[in-house]
């Protein structure tokens, strides 16, 4: 997983409240077994005029010209500006995989569903919570001209093109996961491998019948 240190990118503004995980990645794609390839189905019901199915190629489908991710200006964007309660609904981690696979590195919103927020931090996507007034102002700016933002995780700051700086909070553990590009299992092994191995050696010496011979 790619570590998150900083990102500078133009913004895609998704002006919809309560975007649930089924909108982010529809249920018919949940049967896919690999984490790769979900990006082509991101916001599938909104990006295309007809419902899709696993294996459909984007080039063979008719895009919805009114959806923001289909605009030429959205291509290459790494930051998604969202409204409140983004990521609500089912706890499917696949929704975050789809965002990451499409290229999104950071989400900026006034609030996120709790499980979705945690899934983002475990999968290399930084969820940033800012006040409602700041979010409203950013949306208003996207209506007038393209908006670019600079995000620095070590200093926990988001900076606008005019120099306006906004601080955000994140737990130390989740910050470390993102900075190192680790999920919780990899983080545990990286920091406690010797303790785990020591416990295993002691346990198998004490209870040798646990080891297949």
TrEMBL record:
Is the keyword Amino-acid biosynthesis in the record?
yes
Catalytic reaction list: (2R,3S)-3-isopropylmalate = (2S)-2-isopropylmalate
Write out the pathway annotation from the protein's UniProt entry: Amino-acid biosynthesis; L-leucine biosynthesis; L-leucine from 3-methyl-2-oxobutanoate: step 2/4
MF-aspect GO terms? 3-isopropylmalate dehydratase activity
Coiled-coil regions listed:
none
Q: Subunit notes for this chain?
A: Heterodimer of LeuC and LeuD.
Name it.
3-isopropylmalate dehydratase small subunit
Protein species of origin: Pseudomonas chlororaphis
Gene this protein is translated from = leuD
